[in-house]
């Protein structure tokens, strides 16, 4: 059987399984997820052995230290993966929830009901923990999942997949609820992305290159979890002490994540009072500052921020700083240079706050809080599969509810249309 | 300026306008829509004159009678278009509605708020009324719209567009809220579908060929309003009188629309009691019946239904009929051959009803009612832009609410992440 036929076979089986998932109770799903969590611990030795193969190959290929770190599985990391599954088991089941219900004058009783999306494909890079995280969330929300991880982590992913599959077999659930593409052939992704008759949604998880490639090739709807070029805007009417705490937190607390601040905007009337002390504190924390002309006049000895800086997700202790004329200019800058992820205004002014909330075209818009809160757990939604920077069908943290769609169930007693 | 540059210019302007739409009040939007409705009446003579040009060209090209009928505008049709706009003005504004709101333990107050999608492109064929319907719904939901109609109706569309634009100018609203691509160059569509930096959503409106082409080329998310191969399944436990009324209504009341029944499934234990009288009534109404082997044994003198029949949207007085062994076989047939639009079961049995509701993977699933109710107005949602057969981001009737997305507005008082 050729590659294309093999993939169609997998996708068809996944679709059939997804339709049978509609009949599985929440308690059974939770039991299976707990068994998956246990399966990871039980198969720890096998997983670590497989991971060592991947690590050896990566070292041979002289992969970067960061790459090797992302790839490495330890006892601790496997325990964390297992605990994440336990947490997913404890979350409420989104499937079957009634979004709204109403009765028509002719007696039709219309229910808009949350149902699984169907078949979800996850295309990811070298983090093996994505394998178990995605299986847990997709299974809990009643979807079949097709995993396609980076070829560099194939042995680790297969070992994790085997450990999770035990729970599916134990409970005699349909084949094809969880699937992994086990060929390293790179053409597999292109072929998979053509199967819009069977796969309902693709989520690429990884760097910009991967996401762009998937989005440009796919015939299946894609939800992108893109970069985060997040801003904090310190308004003319900001409480500058609060602004300093928020900006410091947004940049420094964990710079390598998508909801960290990459660019700080400061109103011209706050700049002289705010920037010197703020930048001193940043420098002490090891943050490299790149500023606009005015910033360079106020804070000596810093680099110039280029157009490219304003479009860069540093994911590092680097920050671009720009002084703006007005809240309008701040909003304009964010909408033009940002990535529609998370942006915050610090202000005590009612009108500035409302204008910012309305006009900034981002998934999460904050007043007087750090952008670092954009996260499923911080929002109280539970574990998330990523932060969508798309507008359709989910925006911001994608937790269990965002892995569902809806259908209309209509109850009649003989109604016909006249 | 080349075609590509022209289109980028239009899309950029549309994006800028969409961001300014956030500040426009519901009452102003409604006033503008009422002025648009009036503009159609005021410019009726111009519109009909432009339509005559299109009709003359269509006759020259020997287009079909159905094509010419769809293209023709009369006093009555323009009045209907105007009335549709009046109705949209009266519907509640979906923008700004709070979907949910909660407070976190740290005091963050999170609002999930309905906002416009941004820029919506509509690619359609020769029905000029689509122009005003789409402008009304997109404008009301706060979106900029880019219209690209069939070249055969270009003169009519431009005249309608001009009549609607008057209202935008009168109220000094931003250029680019409503846009029309006025070149007949077919390359324009392909170029437009690449502009995912500016356009948020594409909706193709028309035949299967158009929809497939747009879906396969577009880099922008597409919501498909696809064919409706709708089923009614007459269960073993059906009230056969009710079943006859529902099936007759679903097939005959208006056969040319997407929510009409194309295939009737009958449980083997109901077939002998049900089919003879039902089919007699269909024949009297001029319905051609194509049946499976068993149907052919029960009802004499009918054609055989082929595999192709089961996959065909007739949009005509033709019906395929199949006798099935069980509710499972009915569900399996619907999921395999249907188009995930609208399907109904007629039954007095609780378990059959629940199984059908859960397992049929369609936008609208009915018990004991005609499929003909799948419609924004019939659901009580108001005017719709189409019936989505996709699962993301909207499913079933797409009314005003489905033309919005959401963002999170988060109110803090200095919260930082620890």
Topology:
The structure is a homodimer of 418-residue chains.
Chain A: H1 3-21, H2 26-42, H3 44-60, H4 65-71, H5 75-90, E1 98-103, E2 109-116, E3 119-124, H6 129-140, E4 144-148, H7 154-170, E5 178-180, H8 187-192, E6 201-205, H9 208-217, E7 230-234, H10 240-252, E8 261-267, H11 268-284, E9 288-291, H12 293-298, E10 303-304, H13 307-310, E11 318-324, H14 327-337, E12 342-346, H15 350-359, E13 364-369, H16 376-379, E14 386-388, E15 396-398, E16 404-415
Parallel strand pairs in A: 3-4, 3-6, 4-5, 7-8, 7-12, 8-11, 9-10, 9-11, 12-13
Antiparallel strand pairs in A: 1-2, 2-16, 14-15
Helix pairs in contact in A: 2-5, 2-7, 3-7, 5-6, 6-7, 10-11
Would you write up a description of this structure?
Two copies of one chain form a homodimer. By secondary structure, the first copy, chain A, is an alpha/beta fold. Chain A folds into two domains: 238 residues, Aldehyde Dehydrogenase, Chain A, domain 1 (3-Layer(aba) Sandwich), CATH 3.40.605; 149 residues, Aldehyde Dehydrogenase, Chain A, domain 2. Chain A is 44% helix and 21% strand. A seven-stranded parallel sheet of chain A has the order 10-9-11-8-7-12-13, with helices on both faces. In chain A, helix 10 links the parallel strand 7 and strand 8. In chain A, 52% of the residues are buried. The model of chain A has no long low-confidence stretch (mean pLDDT 96). Strand 13 of chain A pairs parallel with strand 16 of chain B, so a sheet runs across the interface.
